[in-house]
Description:
Blueprint: H1 2-28, E1 29-36, H2 43-62, E2 70-77, H3 82-95, E3 100-103, H4 107-120, E4 123-126, E5 143-145, H5 150-162, E6 168-174, H6 177-193, E7 198-205, H7 213-222, E8 226-229, H8 234-246, E9 253-256, H9 265-268, E10 276-278, H10 288-301, H11 314-330, H12 335-342, E11 346-348, E12 353-356, E13 363-364, E14 367-373, E15 383-390, H13 392-395
Parallel strand pairs: 1-2, 1-3, 3-4, 4-5, 6-7, 6-8, 8-9, 9-10
Antiparallel strand pairs: 10-14, 11-12, 12-13, 14-15
Amino acid sequence: xxxxxxxxxxxxxxLVTIFIAGEALAADTVNIVVLDPIxxxxxxxxxxTVWGVQFAVDETNAAGxxxxxxxxxxxxxxxxxxxxxARKAIRAIMEDKAQFILHNTSSAVAQALMDVAEKNKVIxxxxxxxxxxxxxxxxxxxxxxxxxxxxxxxxxxxxxxxTRPWRKFYLMNQDYAFGHxxxxxxxxxxxxxxxxxKIVGEDYAPIGQKDFxxxxxxxxxxxxxxxxxxxxxxxxxNLIVQGAQMGIKxxxxxxxxxxxxxxxxxxxxxxxxxxFVNSTYLxxxxxxxxxxxxxxxxxKFKDTNHPYPAxxxxxxxxxxxxxxxxxxxxxxxxxxxxxxxxxxxEYAGLVGKQIMRACDHQIVMPGPVxxxxxxxxxxxxxxxxxxxxxxxxxxxxxxxxxxxPRCTGGK
Length: 411
């Protein structure tokens, strides 16, 4: 009996020691969890998100870390499922003492992580989920967004097309909430800002659509000058490649969200030349901060599959560095202190001057629109170069239109 008592005491002491060691480790580091799909069909997207954040962490740690502490990065697979993402985020908070949640892909997953952040009083940083309602009607003060929304993109394109000759637009998008939001926001802005613009057709295809021939036939018959699409991944590449095979060619062009993807552009090749992309980030932006960043990235990763930080390599880095600057400003990793420091903060980011709008925690910054050029300065395939920078005030959704009660006079 005495042996069993001593055995139980030893086990208890061991568990307490492990707990104390874990608490000490957490106290000596700033712990961050990044969640994105790192398995399945979207694995490449998630891998790049983690890669971009990791580069920000590595550079910050090499420069002394945050608040005199090193950053510890934990990566988890969301599987593109909100319940899975929420469960893993909670585990990272409880077991790994994560103080910050970072995430890029899927607005549905973003909503689940926002709920986790609010309940556990930790900061959630949205690097890429674009649904307007996240910083609008569903706002939580524990969430900040460092990417554009569908509303931002619609405004950037409307401003861009004001000074261009094209007026006939065909909307071709994926048949789910995001695809419909892309189309709805663009229709609203283009008709408001360009009175003689015409929507000559509108279609939605299931995600993963392999055969775009029926849609392309309708596009060709419509007389469209611009095909406006928020398609991404293989859905974007298949649309463009099959369109070229069926006769879509210049002067008809695509206006896209995601045609800056260095995985898809080699597949679309010359068929993409002359089309446009509005992105949260482009490696060809000519700011001093971005030129220096691209040079550092290329020096380290020139022999990899991503020698330049295109697409969701660049904007996770930019978002993470904005957060780290807010933590430094707060002189604390406490959520309340960071919220206070982050609200209204200005930062010289990769795209230019960035402001974290206080009322809705939505980033305000210039909107690059790049044209796909046949000969790229940095890639051996067509890529958007020399982007037009749409001013921040033209890209930002006015506070009264956000749907966020904090922005419209509510509580």
